[in-house]
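Moderator note: this is an archived Q&A kept for reference. The question asked for a predicted structure of one protein chain; the sequence and the answer are reproduced below.
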Amino acid sequence: MISLGDPGSKSLTGSPDPDVTVFSGDPVELVRELKGQEGKGIYLCGGGNPAGQLRPEIDELVVKIYPFVAGDGIRLFSGEFSSERYELAESRTFKNGTVVVRYVKRSG
């Protein structure tokens, strides 16, 4: 696992676990390097700031919608507005009302 640390942050000085690498460089460069390697997909979890930085590299969105509201929420993407098209690939609804949808980026 790789944790994208804020380059200006002093709160995370080292890895909390031997299986976690703390990375404070350019996240886009890191993701492009990882995408060029053999292995499994990359899963981003962490809110609008990292998603906004990595937006050009995101091929698939998995959005979880819960039937519960607390506070004002977190933006899906931070940064400047731009539009991209995604197609619905899958949706699942659970007994508790939670919905999980998966979208893939449209080519062209």
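Archived answer notes: The chain has a mean pLDDT of 85.
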